[in-house]
Amino acid sequence: MDDILDLERFPLDRPHTPAWHALVDSAKAGLARDGLFNFDGFMRPAALAQVLDHVHPRMAHESFHHSRWHNIYFKDTIDGVDPDDPALKKVETSNHTLCHDQLRGTPLDRLYNWPEFATFLAAVMDRPQLYVMDDALAGINVLEYRDGEALNWHFDRSIFTTTLLLQEPDAGGVFEYAQDLRSADDPNHAGIAALLNGQIAPTQLPQTAGTLNVFLGVNTAHRVSTVQGPKSRIVAVLSHYDTPGRAFTKDEQMGFFGRVA
What we know:
alpha+beta; Jelly Rolls; 7-stranded antiparallel β-sheet
């Protein structure tokens, strides 16, 4: 794994050593303070290049173009909210997706299935154990945002999201978020409406290729701003769960990937 990751700076290969515990503590501190942590330079440049050499031709000829208008909740209706409420304003998301079965044998596949990676994430998230998905399509996805495309405002369904930035765009494509915009006790529809109307300035998080990011997105609204220019934004999403055997339904696979396993 040393050919893929900078294990001197990020000693995931040495679980329960002092250096490993220090890295876990640093990641936990970032989550507590900012709702996220970044490991800049996590993947080595040569491994990044290998992944992109694999991804580029497949993106051009095999990717699924996902495009939809949605509200921040990805739901048609919200209990107690008028359909015309500004909090339900529609926004557009558009990207191109490769699935796990199109990424077998790559450094991403090796990282995802490396037990020490799940062990580290479990420690950071205070889980006894985390598991890869039992899904031929959804375990790893690589998403490309081309000129004029964006991942628009939304909340996540999962407690945490793990991404690895593979390619930065020339302009735009910035990760933006409004931390803890809502809570379990306060849906804060007025605050959500203010964000969608540009009355709340989100935090911007510039990232460089090779950066690992873990993000708590259930109550933090976030997006990737519109990409500008010929160089696209390419990011991998690596999904772990605290129970084994997790998989998307056929309807979810069709909606996200345009096909079923």
